Fold each of these.
Amino acid sequence: MTSWRTRNLGEMGWTEAREAAEKNPVVLLPVGTIEQHGPHLPLHEDSIVAEYVAKAVAEATDALVLPTMMYGHSPTFRGYAGTINLRHETLTAVITDICDELIRHGFRRIVIVNNNGGNTSPVATAAVDLRARHGVLIGTVYPWSLGYQLMRDQYDDPAIAYGHGAEPELSAMLAMFPEQVRMDAAEGGKLQSYQGWQPTSYVSARVDGHPVDGTVYWDFSDVSPSGVTGDVTVASKETGQVWIDRVIGFCVDFVKEYDRNTVSVG
């Protein structure tokens, strides 16, 4: 393990950063967004969780962490007060510019800790472009999505428990940032019909007579007054600790694998 004075690149002086680049470290870029997660969860939830995960992974893998990018692409939630949406091309450009600068200074091994679904396409677009122009291989992990995949055995029926502002993110927040959760304001939610449509998710709806859904690009506020779907009553700090162990455990192993596979070509 490298003996870093700090793992936070933003806390380094410029000469310290220059010396760090010479050691060819993996650099983690946390990316979140400012969007609604119901009345009981903070707008910056995706961002602070991305940072929490990135810092934990850095401690376990010898990586460095960049300052968190707080804003992201959240067009689906613009109908809720406080949501701040960057356009797809804006977020793509900012991520590309950040990585361009890292590469220019010698940091060529980059993993993006993206914690918002809307950011997925901009991150992928930037990563593919950076690969073509610089030959770097960008990695990415998506903690919330990993949680959905890794936590199913914690619930009697994940289809009922899971949702925006509900599980498993609510339990994770109770474990990581309990002081920012207002359980007194927590309420579950079901999607309501909209202009004849029967919504099934953020942008999908039933089509009579068919086993698959159709896609409709409404604002989520059209079909969810509270912004919440899923069951908030089953959330617990204990379940959140399972989320921390499993999700961060996967991210640590991924970054170790990325480190092994890129160290000779970084």
Note: Strands lie at 26-31, 64-65, 109-114, 139-141, 204-205, 214-215.
Amino acid sequence: MACLGCTVVGIGIGPAPASAIAPLAAHSGIWISREEIAALPMSGPAWEYLQRDAHQKIPPPDLSNQNDRTNVIVVAKAFVFARTGDESYRSEVRQAIRAAMGTERGGRTLSLARQLGSYVIAAELIGLPPDEDDIFRTWLRSTLDFDLEGRTLRTTHELRPNNWGTHAGASRLAAALYVGWTPEVERCAQVFRGWLGERASYAGFEFGDLSWQSDPAHPVGINPLGATRDGYLIDGVLPDDQRRASPFTWPPPHENYVYEALQGAVAQAVMLERAGYPVWAWSDRALLRAFLWLQSRANYPATGDDTWLLPIVDRAYGTQFWDGGPTHPGKSIGWTDWTHARR
């Protein structure tokens, strides 16, 4: 649940703290390592909610259905296996991964983008047998360029500066990390840095209505530090998702596509940080500014399947957006109140 009463106005955006900008050592694990999971508690509300979700029967996977929730049940089972060693969970995850491959046909890239990363994270956590792993890796490579209604994960990531692109970037990055494609990981980082606002890194996106951009001649994924329009602070706005509510107006309308985009963006940030990139500091802590704007300017805290974002952001920036209650899994991942909460 979101921290509806947190104070966020007092958090300034000056130079990032040393912990946020220092060069990082890469960590094992795409999302989290088995060693880290082994140290997590097996009691308390977060563990109980994870177990509840992991106990669900896995429906037939369908990567062509953007509303399919099989992927998050698979991740829940992988988490519980990694913590308990219960082979029944591992067996279910293996079966789901085998069943998922090829079901992307007939869908849109948004559907594959929302779901693919979940199966990658789950596969790493359970450890596939060598023959199954070879098949999975071959399929992963093919998914990045698989044509879905004229788009691929790569082109969606590099052209769409909204929720489509951020989810595509997260799944593309997860696949690249799993198969060990260093140039592909570096390209994902380059594109993401450009989306956050550093156009010198990447500026190849195709934007829609520009009325929420602070500089329409130089559009970005998150408006820069101190950005204003008509005297109103729009620093931290995600213009290409905020426009889905309406062209620029004030008070700002609540647009959930912004949180949808942040789900993909925060997922990328977690994985890039583990790969050694100081991503939380990029573009004057752009991700922090996005959450600050939503909380303090738009009066629009995260609820429902967006609440998993909050423990991660609090851990990265020392904020208090999360109220400590159970979170809900998002489109591709969740249970961050168990995996990523500060302890």
Note: The longest strand covers residues 228-229.
Amino acid sequence: MSVRFLHTSDWHLGHQLHGHDRAAEHRAFLNWLLDRAEADAVDALLVAGDIYQTSNPPAAAEQLFYDFLAEARSRLPDMAIAIIAGNHDSAPRLIAARAMYKHLGVHVVGAAPFTRDAGDALQRVQTASGDFWIGAVPFIRPSDLRPSVLREHGPAAATAERYASVYEAYAARAKADEPLVWMGHAHIRGGRPTDSERDLVRGAEEALPPSIFGDGFAYAALGHLHLAQEVEGAAGPIRYAGSPIPLSLAETTYPHQVLRVDLEDGRARVASLLVPRHVDLIRFGQDDPKGPDETLAALQAEAFDGSLPRERWPFIEVSVFLEEPAVDLAERILGVLANKPVRFLRIDSRRAASMRTRLGDRVFDRDLSDLDPEEVLTEFHRAERGAEPSEALLQAFRELQAGVLACES
């Protein structure tokens, strides 16, 4: 048996970068993804969570997702498609279109409540090249875990039990030549995060051991960490496909990719397929920031590609070294860039030590645009209440923030 599939994750449709829409980049990626799936004659497509940026995505992001599924089924009628929800996704919202998914032959798992028979989490995939099983475990919330185990042994043990129940169902049903491929959306211990992921629990305390996947699997297709990487320490290959486009300025330094996996006699051979970058992200002056006047002169002299359509104009961050306040700096930078084919993101202010201010016993040397709203809430709660905010409060805040972002979009 030789089965080929593509592993991708963390699309974050509806994402904005400092207020700029990313729909053109996502559309370009999804078109490229279908082209690769067709050219490589894949048997299946696995999408390991975080389809959307927020639990209440804008209508344009949902339309992009549904258009992709329709086009995929039109161009590749025999390709199996499996999708799980991530921590950014709303499970009920994602599976609200279950009738449409069934019509298209798309397997979507939004939630993973504990059941002994695995439920929707275990799916047999039949292809012309051979059959395999998918253990599709979306982002697990406390309500998905067995209360007694959660209470007595904690979330890691209760989550491991959830994966074990899926594996037990697979072992009972599968034939000897039908391998198991896991899909999960979680932080596995040993995986390296970047600054744009939302910790599932603050401080990444939720990180799970690689052993949760057991011994008898062919491949684990994961989502959540945006840096494509392999996690060591398990009986089989555990891979994060990473995000297909940079979701923060910190993600511009490494290539983004989709993974092509060939299963041959139960063994996985993995190849990285680099995603073309539709829009460049420029970090102007980052390596050696100069003062305002010198920076503005360098920007004025810089030439950018004027032949690009507006949706492909690069995003630009400008690094400036400040020895004294410059209240009109943003206005001056915007004036220089007004007639240039770029989209301004932010100023990266490198402040001299004399400009740093102290609040209590904590030094702040960050721009407001750098701060994650949930981080601000957490810090305020610690200062005012002397404790971490509850998960219920954080979830309510996330839903409120998602609603605000949806209104702004």
Note: The CA atoms of residues 218 and 267 lie 6 Å apart.
